[in-house]
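Internal tracking record. Fields below are filled automatically when a chain is submitted to the structure queue. Please do not edit lines marked as system-generated. If the sequence contains nonstandard residues, flag them in the REMARKS field before resubmitting.
Queue: standard
Priority: normal
Entity type: single polypeptide chain
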Amino acid sequence: MDVPHTPEERRRQHELVRERFTRTAEQFGQFSLSVRAVEAEHLARLAMPYVLSPPRATALDVACGPGTFTVAFASRVRRMIGLDLTPAFLPPAREAAARKGLRGVSFVCGQGESLPWRPATFDVVVTAYSLHHMAAPERVLAEMHRVLKPNGVLALADLMVPGDPDPQASAAHNAIEIARDASHVRTLFATDVRALIEGAGFSLRAVEVSERLRSFTGWMQIAGWRPGDAPFAEARRLMEVHQHEDRTGFLPRAIATGSGPDIEFIQTSLFVAAQK
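SYSTEM-GENERATED OUTPUT FOLLOWS
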């Protein structure tokens, strides 16, 4: 799969991400702040033991979205900043922090390839479910490494293709993701994510894999699609191709629901704590 790397291709990718999440900010925000709150706590518990002095720590959440992971880490540090490319996410993120009564939390608009902070500014940098939307994830990880203090901690969660690296499995998996969401670039294998993190200069401290059972219809609705929409039909067609001989790692299977037939599948995530 070709991955965009030129400045113009990266700019177009930023526009795709901003358009997609502006359009679905409400649906995605509701999903993330409810369902992913447990995952945010999990990542915080995984990473924070490696932070040298949490009560005095400053943290940054890159691609913070509606603030799900920002809130989880903000309750454990002195100062927290959430940064996102999509302005529509910042108001709900501020509201999420206010509902928790958190102080020392702020949100700004920006992108991860050029973080507007000096080297060695933060004790913790977080990014969650963003890597697969990045045109140049290695550039973003390098920026995270730059703004971390010595011994600073990277906390990362993202989708992954399960199993050993296989070009055909990758192509099949990502074809479904892209049919659902044009701003999706590539879901990686765990070994690829680890190589990117280590290539940016980090040392891995903890790595965990998690699986979540998903409803196809619910998954599509979060992306803003309904039955009858062309992206819904194409993603479903591709998912159905792999119901009997799966090459995607989704392990899809047909199910009956009260509202009609659906597909249930497994979504696999990787949680990583690494240190500068």
